[in-house]
Amino acid sequence: MISILLATYNWPQALKLCLESLATQTDKNFEIIIADDGSTENTKQVIESFGRSYPAAIKHLWQEDQGFRKTKILNQAINAAHGDYLVFLDGDCIVQPDFVARHRELAQKGYLVTGSRILLNDSLTQELLSWSQWSFHKFSSGLLGKRLSGCINKYWPLKIKLGNGSWRDYKKFVWRRIKGCNMACWKADAEAINGFDETMTGWGHEDADFVFRLQHHGITRKSGSWSTEVLHLFHKINDQSNAAENARRVREKILAKAL
């Protein structure tokens, strides 16, 4: 079984769309563990509103809001996961109906997958948030027009899906295209490196650190582009005051392993 570890913080409207999109999956053999980094009661109410009618099991993990501590709540989610394969997703992302199926297709022992995203602009984001319910069919209507008008930054990855293959494999660690909002690995591999580094607080590069340590552990990174794209809702840039320090710490680890 696949466990989707869904990170969220105080954007219940976006989380509602994300959960609705997960409810439309063609592959239904998954559970959802919501890793909540201290949201208010509104988020809890959204989760509870799905109730027993939701097609997948949902578990809500919550920790007190003491600043950005995504690493800590994700480690709790890893520990709580019943699936042997973990797909990391953020609550400000909407998934395509074949999202789980595509991740399952790319899952391979000894590998991790870093997926990709399609950026939505502010006007399209506000439009989607106003919908009573998510519909991928409705979203896909006039897709080329959305691209030409700048509402989305990619078109072809939504139309063309490519299968597995060695061309997806990275030969070494690179920072490029690591997005914590869409990546996957085996639970045993995550546990072998003790999950995320909880000393990394504040926004930035905790996902790169996780991927680097998995690769150093002997896991091969595989690209999930042209297969697993998520739709990333527009929002203001997070507080990045810790990003430079977190990046420095990752580079320090890389240098230490190279010596």
Account of the 3D structure:
Helix 2 links the parallel strand 2 and strand 3. The protein has a 7-stranded mixed beta sheet with strand order 3-2-1-4-8-6-9, sandwiched between helices. Strands 5-10-7 form a 3-stranded mixed beta sheet. Helix 1 runs parallel beside helix 2 and helix 10 packs parallel to helix 11. The chain is of the alpha/beta class. It has one domain: Alpha-Beta Complex (Spore Coat Polysaccharide Biosynthesis Protein SpsA, Chain A), CATH 3.90.550.
List the helices and strands and how they pair.
Blueprint: E1 2-8, H1 12-22, E2 30-36, H2 41-50, E3 58-62, H3 70-80, E4 85-90, E5 93-95, H4 99-106, E6 111-114, E7 117-119, H5 122-130, H6 136-140, H7 143-148, H8 156-159, E8 182-186, H9 187-192, H10 206-216, E9 220-223, E10 230-232, H11 243-258
Parallel strand pairs: 1-2, 1-4, 2-3, 6-9, 7-10
Antiparallel strand pairs: 4-8, 5-10, 6-8
Helix pairs in contact: 1-2, 10-11
Condensed summary:
Helices cover 37% and strands 18% of the residues.
Kindly list the characteristics that best describe this protein.
259 residues, alpha/beta, Spore Coat Polysaccharide Biosynthesis Protein SpsA, Chain A, three-stranded mixed sheet, 10 strands, globular, transferase, Glyco_trans_2-like, Glycosyl transferase, Galactosyl_T_C
